[in-house]
Every structure is written in structure tokens, then in C-alpha cells.
Amino acid sequence: MKTLIPLCLLVVATAAGSASAQTAPDTTAAAGSDCITLADNHQVVRRSAAESILLQNGSDHYLVRFARSCSSAATSRKVEFVTPDHQGQLCGAGGSKLRTDSQSCEVTAVEPITAEVFTRRAR
């Protein structure tokens, strides 16, 4: 009986650790998700837009980086984020593109920034 109790505790601890390890990747994937839902009234600031643009989405602010130069972003009449299979979302890591009049620019990162940084960089 004395050996049965520690053995049961070992089995329970192993099962709990195994269940925790199984759920960890899902939590990490959700936390590492680089997607945001775009508000209807989001604002894009295209000053010095060849490498990145600024995005105000509701009360949140972001720096959106491109994989390569997106020179038409600063001069295009219209810009639009396109995310296949995720309409209304903006995703980094190549999940979204910025479509301009003459270019389609791959988004590599959507980085949160403060309102102060947004205002300073938008000038």
C-alpha cells in the first residue's frame, strides 16, 4: 500500500504535465498571432511609406512593415489591406498585402506602438 500511493501520485503528476504540454503550443500560437481586426474607421499614414506605414486602428496604433520597398504606397490614390481567407484582418509574416494602384506589397510585421510614437512619426 505504501508504494501504491507514490505510484498513483506519479501517474497523476505525469498526466497533468502531459496535458499541460499538449495545450501549451495552442496558447503560444494564439499569443504569437500577428493578426488584428481592422476597424471600419482605421487610418493609414503613408509618410515615408517605402519600408513601412503607420496604422491607427480605433485607439490602437501600429507600425506595418513591408518585405520589400513599397514605393507606390506614398503616392497611390488608394491603399487597401488584403488578407486571403481573413477579410477585415491584417496579418504580418506574409499573411497580408497592401494593395496600391500599381503594386502589391507583402506585410512582414504588424508592430504595436504607442500613441506618442505614432504622432511623432506621422509628422
Provide an overview of this structure.
- It is a single chain.
- With 123 residues, the protein is of the alpha+beta class.
- It has two helices and eight strands, in the order H-E-E-E-E-E-E-E-E-H.
- The strands form two sheets. Strands 2-3-4-8-7-5 form a six-stranded antiparallel beta sheet, with helices on one face. Strands 1-6 form a two-stranded antiparallel ribbon.
- It is globular, with a radius of gyration of 22 Å.
- 17% of the residues are buried.
- Mean pLDDT is 80; it is low at 6-32.
Question: What is the topology?
Answer:
Blueprint: H1 4-31, E1 35-37, E2 43-45, E3 52-57, E4 60-66, E5 80-82, E6 89-91, E7 97-99, E8 104-113, H2 115-122
Antiparallel strand pairs: 1-6, 2-3, 3-4, 4-8, 5-7, 7-8
The largest β sheet comes out as: 6 strands, antiparallel
Q: Spans with pLDDT under 50 lasting ≥5 residues?
A: 6-32
Please give the order of strands in the largest beta sheet: 2-3-4-8-7-5
Using the CA coordinates, give the radius of gyration: 22 Å
Helix and strand content put the structural class at alpha+beta
Provide a brief overview of the structure.
The protein has two helices and eight strands, in the order αββββββββα. It has helices at residues 4-31, 115-122, and strands at 35-37, 43-45, 52-57, 60-66, 80-82, 89-91, 97-99, 104-113.
Key structural traits:
two-stranded antiparallel sheet; alpha+beta; 8 strands; 29% helix
